Amino acid sequence: MTMYQLSACIAIVGAVGYQYFVKRVPGSLNPIVSVIAIYVAVLTLSVILLPLFPADGGLLHHFRQLSWIQLALAVSVIMIELGFLLMYRYGWTLSTGSLVTGVFINLTLVGLGVTLLGEKINAVNAIGIAFCILGVALISFRS
Prior knowledge:
The chain has 143 residues and is mainly α. It has two domains: 1-92, no CATH class; 93-143. Helices cover 76% and strands 0% of the residues. Helix 5 packs antiparallel against helix 6 (123-140). The longest helix has 24 residues, at 94-117. The chain is globular, with a radius of gyration of 19 Å. It starts with a helix and ends with a helix.
């Protein structure tokens, strides 16, 4: 398996685990306390994993490259954490919550890719996008 494939597998397993476990966070637990605990664990695991990813030029060289982008990512991540935690607390099901938000996320990313990054959409992509929109409408429909 190439790193190209392995990286996708890691992301998929992580995303599935994330959705499953965020759904299981007790409703009685303060959501901010939950997020703090998650990120203390993430920091600990990251320090443990650091030796597996050697820093060419030393860690200080890499720390000097940090910018506002890490803060923007932190804001995005806390919004994801709180958003899904609150979605599941307020009635979204595991089977639809991630799917519905995922389609809207991906449609937005298509728009950003096309407008900001110059990516192209072909006819097959456009048909797929239409099916995604139809799928969300069908999944969200409640009789």
